[in-house]
Amino acid sequence: MDLSPKQSSPSESTRFPDEVLERVLALLTSPKDRNAVSLVCKDWYTADSWSRRHVFIGNCYSVSPEIVARRFPRIRSVTLKGKPRFSDFNLVPDNWGADVHSWLLVFASGCPFLEELRLKRMRVTDESLEFLALNFPNFRALSLLSCDGFSTSGLATVATHCKNLTELDIQENGIEDLSGDWLSCFPENFNTLEVLNFSNLITDVNPGVLERLVSRCRSLKVLKLNRTSSLDRLQRLLVSAPQLTELGAGSFSEELTLQQHAELKYAFGLCKNLSVLSGFWDASALNLSAVYPACSRLSFLNMSYTALQSPELASLLPHCPCLRRLWVLDSVGDKGLEAVGANCPSLEEIRVFPTDPFDEDMLHTVTESGIVAVSQGCPKLHYILYFCRQMTNAAVATVVRNCPDFTHFRLCIMNPGQPDHTTNQPMDEAFGAVVKACKKLKRLSISGLLTDLTFKYIGEYAKNLEALSVAFAGSSDLGMQYVMEGCSKLKKLEIRDCPFGNVALLSGLERYESMRSLWMSACNVTIDGCRSLAREMPRLNVEVMKEEGSDDCKADKVYVYRTVAGPRRDAPPSVLTFSGL
Amino acid sequence: MEGGVAYENGLNFKATELTLGLPGSGETEGQGGVRNNNKRPMPTPETNEEESQAHKAADRGSRAQIVGWPPIRSYRKNSLQAKNSEGEASGMYVKVSMDGAPYLRKIDLKVYRDYPELLKALEAMFKFAAGVYSEREGYKGSEYVPTYEDKDGDWMLVGDVPWDMFMSSCKRLRIMKGSEARGLGCGV
């Protein structure tokens, strides 16, 4: 089948020359739209292939780099996601795979004009970073989130060789932090940086080098400092770069003199365009007041690395009238959340992380009252992530009555299997209320004591659900069956520690090919069950991670995903691959 | 860690019943947690104070954490741990509980210069009045009485020993109901 665009086919489906079609399609940027377009007819498929500039690959094993490069020879930007999400919580062995190197090798010859690479949960070595820096002359933007396998030496090669770098975004990676010298590797005349995020790193970068770099890069919009960056340095950087739109402050705990405080406050006041603020490790209440002048246009405030108390938050929020997204630690307490409800009428997203996730004695730092208070004051809320130690069905029902527009509802009651603490009933009705009220719900994470009834509700009402995360829940196979039968738009399902076995696994036969992936760990699935699944569905990869010392027949961790690339060849010995091919 | 458990008749409430036994509240303390939790049962209120505290301390040590739970990214965990260990180096954080209050607090003892300052802070934090301390009669007549557990595991009245000795030996604070505090303290 010749898909060359040079042959203009005289079919009725297109009256435009290919070049015109390509130009028109180029105006469509969303991957979903592009995918839809490519299915219309062969000509449109071809035009899309030649004009596609950005590819999003949600599972790096669903397709091979060769297929991607062959189909989209002119891509400029690639987003690749690798390991299953539960690898963030240490549930996936280190050597599992998702190494980016094979992709780089293919792209170097197939898509040499690649400019942007965004990786999430991939393995990236220093060797790969060097290869990237040396083989893609137009390379401009690198973003690494939750990746591992590289060190600051790799960053040094990128800084040295990527002459046109505009973005270097290093976030939450397992990076080996050897020294801060990498920053000095940017040439003295280098000035194209627009985004610099090194908040991940501990070792301090060379004094003066950062300041000079920032003053040279007049287009710098995003600057996120690391924890060891002092307030003094911050003050000088702000004066030098008041055009910033996103700032990650460093440590915020130093004691300042009155003079220093005034200077810092003045520097913040120069920044009229800040819409995102983050960082602030260990912020003291006094120092925080220096930030107020910069908050008038703030839309996203991330204070989740400092244990803010409720009075500090209550003092800060009135300065942020435009706030749409807020991330905090539960140290703010219910009182702090009341302040959120009172001061943030435009709030759309709130995330409350635990300060002491493993200390079970630290009870009740935020409770059901807090989440209710936020919902009362913030009717536009559509995204919530809430870690707590107690919850009630009634409170959740109230929250979704106040805010029916939730698209993302992630509730983590930290003690597994905990019931409603006032009635001692399961939390079924809470999530029932969520799925009944929130018709636009796309992502749901459930917790607490839950029976099959929760899943019945989900299957019946959550018709737009795309991602579901389940832990320590359910009573029988029926639970998972309800979901597999009812949620036709489901893309990602992650399950751990639930009583779902082979019957449940196989109930999803009709569903898995339209999903990105399924994860099941510490459930009742056996190797035989996995084998049956693989046999029935040859276009799925069924992988089992065996744990040391477990029974031969048990499938400890199961990862199932659709693929056009066949079983992968880079799996470590602890991963068994079952394939129907 | 076993895989999922099928509940035999419906919900198996008893095993999963989580009654929050507050220190000294006198309520029946049920078994906490779920099948995957390696907690030992919490002590019944009849055991005397020292024993149950020792139980709790040992319990904390042997309690196995569930892998990957709660679902916090390693990066965030490490960030918090670094913060906490720094805190331990520079501050002296002790937990404070109060009988009947559904929450615990952590305070940094280094912030206070003497007993009056500490007491004022505790009274403000938990909304109670400790009354006046006297060496012979403790906090006689007060509804709530501040006590602390020292390095030897003994429960003492706050104020019984010199401030410096208190600072170096206090492990945790408990604001006890006045009626329960009889018999505490030295010299009685």
UniProtKB/TrEMBL annotation, chain A:
Transmembrane regions: none
Pfam families in the cross-refs: F-box_5 (PF18511), LRR_6 (PF13516), Transp_inhibit (PF18791)
SUPFAM superfamilies: F-box domain, RNI-like
Main location: nucleus
Record-level GO BP terms: auxin-activated signaling pathway; pollen maturation
Keyword Phosphoprotein: no
Location of this chain's protein in the cell: Nucleus
PANTHER family, alphabetized: F-BOX/TPR REPEAT PROTEIN POF3 (PTHR16134), S-PHASE KINASE-ASSOCIATED PROTEIN 2, ISOFORM A (PTHR16134:SF148)
Name of the protein described by the UniProt record: F-box domain-containing protein
UniProtKB/TrEMBL annotation, chain B:
Gene3D superfamilies from the UniProt entry: Phosphatidylinositol 3-kinase Catalytic Subunit, Chain A, domain 1 (3.10.20.90)
Lineage: Eukaryota, Viridiplantae, Streptophyta, Embryophyta, Tracheophyta
Biased composition range(s): Basic and acidic residues: 52-62
Regions of compositional bias (Gly residues) in chain numbering: 23-33
GO CC, any one term: nucleus
SUPFAM superfamilies listed in its UniProt record: CAD & PB1 domains
Subunit structure: Homodimers and heterodimers.
Primary localization: nucleus
Domain of life, source organism: Eukaryota
Family as reported in the entry's similarity comment: Belongs to the Aux/IAA family.
Record protein name field: Auxin-responsive protein
Subcellular location: Nucleus
Function: Aux/IAA proteins are short-lived transcriptional factors that function as repressors of early auxin response genes at low auxin concentrations. Repression is thought to result from the interaction with auxin response factors (ARFs), proteins that bind to the auxin-responsive promoter element (AuxRE). Formation of heterodimers with ARF proteins may alter their ability to modulate early auxin response genes expression.
Region described as Disordered: 18-63
The keyword Glycosyltransferase is assigned to this record: no
Record keyword Nucleus present: yes
Domain annotation PB1: ranges: 91-178
Pfam families: AUX_IAA (PF02309)
Keywords for this protein: Auxin signaling pathway, Nucleus, Repressor, Transcription, Transcription regulation
InterPro entries: AUX/IAA_dom, AUX_IAA, PB1-like
GO biological process, one term: auxin-activated signaling pathway
